[in-house]
Amino acid sequence: MNVLQVNFLDTMGGAARIAWDLFRGYQERGHESYLAVGRKSSNEKNVIEIPNDQMRNPWSGLWRSTERRLVEKRIRLLPGAARFLANLGESRRWREQSAGIEDFNFPGSFRLLGLPPQQPDILHFHVLHGGYFDLRSLPALSSRVPTVVTHHDEWMMTGHCACTLGCERWRSGCGQCPDLSIYPAIRRDATAANWLRKREIYQKSRLNIVTPCQWLMDRLQGSVVQDAIVDARVIPNGVDLTIFSPGDQKAARQELGLDEDVWINLFVGHGVANNRFKDFDTLLATMVQFGERPQQRKQLLLCVGEQGEDRRVGENIIRFVKYQTDLHKVAAFYRAADVYVHATRADTFPTSILEAMACGTPVIATAVGGIPEQIEDGVTGFLVPPGGISRIVGCLERLQEDEQLHIAMRAAAAEFAVQKFSLEAMIENYLSWYRKVLEREV
């Protein structure tokens, strides 16, 4: 098969990891595999950057490209000036954004099928927000090539947000949005208009829907996206078990320069402290409450994916480690930890939980989104309510006090990951799904 995947990024973020693993997995199995992205970071020749800026009018295209280069070089103030100059060449686009209309003005989207050397057999979308894709191209693209969309969040069914945080207005048309600042933020409440525009697009589209969990599938099938669905399937995300596997904890700590005697609570996520969904405040409060109790071992909360100075909470420490691109090193952090704590307010199907379990690390996580489909409560880890500080503390104490339970959970977590969440299974499930989609189109 000839498969073209589409995502905002190629190397950073959970959705990018899934798209990249599929991209490489298809190549290894002899398929023609391409990945079109809004921003390319890798040197892989079959990863193609979508030519949005090149297809704008010369003035706007020049200043959009300049803005991007300035941002990449982390030059302050000048990117804003470049953006202002670009807006002068796209005044209608600027007015729409000022009014709260989601920005779909990315002309390279309509050229996707011509980016690979040959037109693909399957067009497979991942994250479509982020400022790189024109959703209005879906009807034309899906009429020409069988189209698959993997939903990693809730954006396609809402008036602007990628995470609804308990709001149910997406069911009836949005409008009167309770929080315009949720990513991707908009300036004014045009959520009802955005929702209607998406509905009109989906009514003209033919999409084969994939979600990593049943929770998200149920929501999509009760949403505006339902109008576009030709068929649907749940395919859990998978992790590379040749990288993420149990190992010697002592050796991992020596490799990372971590104290062998400290109890390590781990959290992994990009921009940990400033991501409102990840609820760092609960992790911090947990350390404070835990630090007030008598303990036999010092505690370390290790946050991988955030830079910053160490913080001290009583005798305990919170340490930040910058975002890691080396997956072998990420696996070493999981092996070094005693428990993985995922106290998020909202999430779909976080890969970090699967990676932790695959490394034999028990997980304490909030029972939100598809997370209950990842964890066997009391067997591979514990499920707690959002903001459940006392419950997290209780689970930590239980694991520390019951060594046999801790050992049993380590073994059960690793076995569960092998049975349910391998990368091999994910790749084969997608290829099987593609074949079914293609057979239907014949």
Q: How is the secondary structure organized here?
A:
Blueprint: E1 2-9, H1 14-28, E2 32-39, E3 47-49, H2 58-72, H3 78-88, H4 91-98, E4 122-125, H5 138-144, E5 147-150, H6 191-203, E6 207-211, H7 214-220, E7 229-234, H8 249-256, E8 263-268, H9 280-291, E9 299-304, E10 311-313, E11 316-321, H10 327-336, E12 339-342, H11 351-358, E13 363-366, E14 381-384, H12 389-401, H13 403-420, H14 423-441
Parallel strand pairs: 1-2, 1-4, 2-3, 4-5, 5-6, 6-7, 8-9, 8-12, 9-11, 12-13, 13-14
Antiparallel strand pairs: 10-11
Helix pairs in contact: 1-14, 2-3, 8-10, 9-12, 11-13
What does this structure look like?
With 442 residues, the protein is an alpha/beta fold. 37% of the residues lie in helices and 16% in strands. It has helices at 14-28, 58-72, 78-88, 91-98, 138-144, 191-203, 214-220, 249-256, 280-291, 327-336, 351-358, 389-401, 403-420, 423-441; strands at residues 2-9, 32-39, 47-49, 122-125, 147-150, 207-211, 229-234, 263-268, 299-304, 311-313, 316-321, 339-342, 363-366, 381-384. The strands form 2 sheets. A 7-stranded parallel β-sheet has the order 3-2-1-4-5-6-7. Helix 9 (280-291) crosses helix 12. The chain starts with a strand and ends with a helix. The mean pLDDT is 92.
